[in-house]
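Anyone opening a protein record will find just a pair of labelled lines. A complete record is shown below as an example.
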Amino acid sequence: MTMVEAEPRPSFWYGMPRGYLQLDLNPSSERIELLAQQVLGLPAELRKKADQAFRFYSGALTLLSQQNVQGCALGLHPDGSGGVLSSVLTVSSISASGLDPKLVVATLVKTSGETPEGHTQPLELPCGTGSFFEEQRTTTAPGRSGEESDDLPEGTVWQGTVAVPAVSSFQIVVMQLVTSEVDYADDYRNVLFGVASTLTFTDPSPTETRAAEGGSVAAARSPFG
């Protein structure tokens, strides 16, 4: 596992498991323009599909930003039969707006526990006590327009969520793993637990490195982005 860090300096850190590719949620305007030019330069028979993928990517970035997602990674793993298992890992932070983050998480646990298909449990982590929620739910295929809503293909996904109150702020860190590979829920649950166990609110970089960058750890912290 490699430790994930971003600019500006984060207020929390976590490990990225093997097989997951971190997405750039804040691409520069130059990069976006380059992607657009590359799409326009494709042969006509490929341009339409590439344009659809480009628009879906742009829309996904906007949606993730609106939901305060600061980390997103795609998981691709072999299934042992020549196929590939896919999943999406997202990490976000929620402000408790002056409330006790532990009480907010407790409310989330109670609400989730009222769902018949849901399951909740406390989770003891090195950084403190968190809460785990999981459920299987039906969802429509992504990337389809509302005009096609009369006949949208549906499928079942497994969704696991870990919520952890920050140590010294009104912040709640939320880690969520979603996959359509519901038969592998036990494996993905272990992956999510593994990522959550690496969560830390203390800068893991060497002390001398932090000092060379100027200021204390507290002064360098800002929302993970």
In short: Confidence is low (pLDDT under 50) at residues 208-225. The two ends are 19 Å apart (CA to CA).
